[in-house]
Specification:
Globin-like, 3 domains, 13 helices, mainly alpha, Multidrug-efflux Transporter Regulator, Chain: A, Domain 2, about 250 residues
């Protein structure tokens, strides 16, 4: 079956302008242009549009989606399985947040009591799942599945007081590291203080601390462009500076 822009837009629940834009950027070209100059879409384009909308639902950028669906080795079936897994993750998160809202409503109506820890369960779960999506494969490969599972459990059991403490620590690291960076000396007092604060911060998430693991994580800040971008967003070179400071702190570099 074939569709015009108007019919396909209506079928998919999107605007005709969106379809025309997808054509312009090369993410979804029509199968052909008919004699009247109308874009005509076939089954292959319908299937690709479904994939695009799945990725959009998962907040993937159009540039990234284009790279994925135009890859000559793109596997539509495998992509659908991946979509399903991610949507199930999202469903779990939504179910948890809905349950949290229901508990809060019951609390405000005086029908039940709710601990402060319960109030933030959904948000902690969301943080864990976002970290899994972004860094899960790398972290599990580096530290092992069991270690990651234990770390996630520690986050879920974090009390309100602990959450406040680790938030304050993160802010202190940012401020201290910025001041230390100005000195240009990763072995200096401020840089070593930043490394010590970083260790304290890690201990809120890790079940056990080791110098090797700490230095390994610091190296990943430099090797992985996502971590580098996070630390270098204020000042280029910050990730490497922190890595060097932690190397010295852990004795990996004299």
């Amino acid at each position: 079956m074939e569709y015009t822009v108007q019919k396909l837009a209506s079928l998919a629940g999107i605007s005709t302008r969106t379809l025309r834009y997808y054509d312009e950027i090369g993410i979804l070209k029509p199968a052909r242009i008919n004699s009247s100059g109308y874009r005509i879409y076939g089954q292959a384009e319908v299937d690709r549009l479904q994939q695009i909308l799945f990725y959009r639902e998962l907040d993937v950028s159009l540039d990234k989606i284009k790279d994925i669906v135009t890859d000559p080795f793109f596997d539509g079936t495998a992509a659908l399985r991946d979509h399903r897994d991610k949507l199930l993750e999202k469903k779990k998160q939504l179910d948890l947040l809905i349950a949290n809202v229901d508990k809060t409503i019951a609390l405000t109506e005086g029908r039940r009591k709710m601990s402060n820890q319960e109030k933030f369960e959904g948000f902690k779960k969301k943080m864990i799942e976002e970290n899994e999506r972004t860094y899960g494969k790398e972290i599990r490969r580096k530290y092992g599945n069991d270690q990651v599972v234990q770390s996630n459990a520690k986050v879920m059991n974090m009390s309100e007081e602990q959450h406040n403490e680790v938030t304050t620590l993160a802010e202190s690291i940012t401020v201290t590291l910025a001041e230390a960076f100005k000195t240009g000396d990763p072995a200096g007092e401020l840089a070593q203080k930043a490394a010590e604060l970083h260790k304290q911060w890690l201990c809120y998430y890790w079940t056990e601390y080791s110098k090797d693991a700490h230095s390994g994580l610091a190296q990943m800040y430099v090797d992985d462009e996502r971590f580098t971008a996070y630390y270098d967003k204020e000042q280029p070179g910050m990730a490497k500076f922190l890595r060097d400071a932690i190397y010295i702190y852990t004795g990996m570099k004299k």
